[in-house]
Amino acid sequence: MAKGPSLRVVQRKPTEIIQRRTVVDMHGYSDAGPSHRAPQRDNRPAHVSSPPASSSSSNSNSGVQELPGFYFDPEKNRYFRLLPGHNNCNPLTKDQLQEKEREKQRHQRLAEDEKTTKKAPRTGLNTSLLLQKRHLGLLPENSYCRLVHEVKVSGMRRHKLEIQSTDNSNPNTDNFRIIVGDSVCERVFTVNDVSHGGCKYGIMNFSSGSRGSLSVEMCDNLYFTNRKVNSICWASVNYPDSHVLLCLVGAADTPGCVSLLPASLFSNSNPDQPGMLCSFKISTAWSCAWCLNPQFDKSFSTGLSRRVIVKDAETGRTQTYGVGTDVLAQHFALRVPVLFNGCRSGEIFSIDLRQRGRRDHSWKAKRFHHESAITSVRVLQDENYLLAADMLGQIKMWDVRVTKPVLEYIGHNNEHAYLPIHVNEHEGLLLAVGQDCYTRLWSLKDGHLLRTIPSPHPAANDMIPSVVFSSNLGGSRGLPGLLMAVRHDLYYFPYNTDYQEGGELCL
């Protein structure tokens, strides 16, 4: 068989390189597919740019000519085809290259995250300087506390937790999908995907020891369902956080429903007195919320396709509000019985439960809009401000009184996922996990991005971490910290820098 013509690398003008593309396509081969060695960098013209596979690669290869359909590997100093050609053993695609670059960046961030000394969230911000300013009277008490929390957040380090169970022969191998903590974060409701389809759910009990050590025990009474869990919230029927409210999506011949389950149902010690246990036939419920206002303290809401339902859990009395779109997110105010709803259309509106019987849309007390579907809404404690996130990655703080945005939190990543936001006003923090699987923390007061935490596992749309942040993780003796569930693993990020794995934890 005759050999193809050999290639000799010659310094050429950019247009001449493009004209030789067909020769590269036919005869330039390597073990990774068709390729062509790039000209030496010392003689390249300064204005030639590299392929836009990623921002970091573009910056490092600013002197490489872009060839349509080819990718330049700076390590091998070669061009590689992006599409399968004569050599199909190892075709390259832009998605694969971008994923490779993302993984490289994730490993770099993980290495930085493991360092004992981390970058301060703000320039010149450290504990000793803050303490000095406080003693000199240059820093108000509330500002001092807020800034100290920012320093503590920047110093949190990742520790893996072992989930204890009475059945130690059956370790958790099912991936976490949702975790939701109760009001004091002694219990966390979990939803795990099961390999054969459907999901299982239960409660993890947390306890905190000296120096912030944390232990976790999984309840034995796990429940399985072939339906998808869309939304969860804790409910206070008999006492605070006595129940859990779940929205289950219908599957095949099984209709969707909203279930109110007593937390004692999942107790290892006393499962004999479950309390109120009921299920409401409400199909395609996207969201749910429990009302804590004394006037409607047994009421809950569900957001459906084109409807909002408010139901009394004891009497079954139902109020229905017609909406022109899907209601994806809900949250009740506490002082007044007002329900805030976020829609797929980008609209956010409130309903005052005291105004009954209105058939037109005059019951919409407040209305404002985002540019994309709303994924989460949270009312702040003074109830004059509301936080909302959407599927464009925008997170905004709205002044409810004038229905105008007053602050935006930059950096969140979302294109189409149904992702919540988490607010901790005591520490002045806002948290959100993006579709890129990074957990970001902002200052609630001014929107400053304090920290970006990479996932311990490779990013994937079905492996987005679920997090819980609490001022007292593990109960009244606990310290502030972040709990992260990703795949089948559970991680703890404590404020306490002296935290030792294997101390009081059974690891």
UniProtKB/TrEMBL annotation:
Taxonomic superkingdom: Eukaryota
Residue ranges with Low complexity bias: 49-62
UniProt keyword annotations, A-Z: Repeat, WD repeat
Keyword Repeat: yes
WD repeats by residue range: 367-408
Ranges of biased composition (kind: Basic and acidic residues): 13-24, 96-117
InterPro entries linked to this entry: CUL4-DDB1_E3_ligase_receptor, WD40/YVTN_repeat-like_dom_sf, WD40_repeat_dom_sf, WD40_rpt
Name this protein carries in UniProt: WD repeat domain 21
Species, as recorded: Characodon lateralis
Native organism taxonomy: Eukaryota, Metazoa, Chordata, Craniata, Vertebrata
